[in-house]
Amino acid sequence: MSFYREQVLPRITEKILDHPPIAALRRETAAGLYGDIVEIGFGSGLNLPELPPEVRHVHAVDPDRTGPRLGKRRLAASPVQVSFVGLDGRAIPLDAASMDGALSTFTMCSIPDLERALAEVKRVLRAGGELHFLEHGLSDDPRIATWQRRVTPFYSPFAGGCRFDVPIADAVRRAGFELVSLDARQRKGPPLGSYLYRGVARKA
């Protein structure tokens, strides 16, 4: 892994995503989670302060080894137990049907094989378990979507594989989840990266 991707990019990402309006969206996204959850893309633990008190254990999956060091104060201050269980969301080292819930925020955009990763999330969830997600992705505005598709091939290599043009809701449905709730709309910010999907999907 290059110095840029290992040391610089995690710091840039944290800077971009550590803001009160985003924290509020994280809190809304995590509402309803409880028990043991798997978090795909733990990063520096920005979700930890926003988890409901019913969550007792986070099983974190993330290839970024720098993030936990950046978030050591959050980890120390959190009452939630955190275990780092894997580096790749496409192969989660947890037993089938062992998790009460799952959480993913600003992560699906950069997973190389999202279909496989969502299948893994579904595998480790118990029956009726929920995936709570907050992701940026493909806009429903054709003009913005066109530019997202044009820019992504040039942007992605410098952004850790992040893509603007991932149709998040469609990907979740194709993985066999039932969408319980979905709020997908353009938010304030740079147009290409501000179409946000916030939702809950249930394993049947």
Explained architecture:
There is one protein chain. With 204 residues, the protein is of the alpha/beta class. It has a single domain (3-203), classed as Rossmann fold, CATH 3.40.50. Helix content is 34%, strand content 28%. The protein has helices at 3-17, 20-30, 66-70, 72-77, 114-124, 142-155, 168-174; strands at 35-40, 55-61, 81-86, 99-105, 125-136, 177-186, 195-203. A 7-stranded mixed sheet has the order 3-2-1-4-5-7-6. The chain is globular, with a radius of gyration of 16 Å.
How would you briefly describe this protein structure?
The chain is an alpha/beta fold. The protein has helices spanning 3-17, 20-30, 66-70, 72-77, 114-124, 142-155, 168-174; strands spanning 35-40, 55-61, 81-86, 99-105, 125-136, 177-186, 195-203. It has a seven-stranded mixed beta sheet.
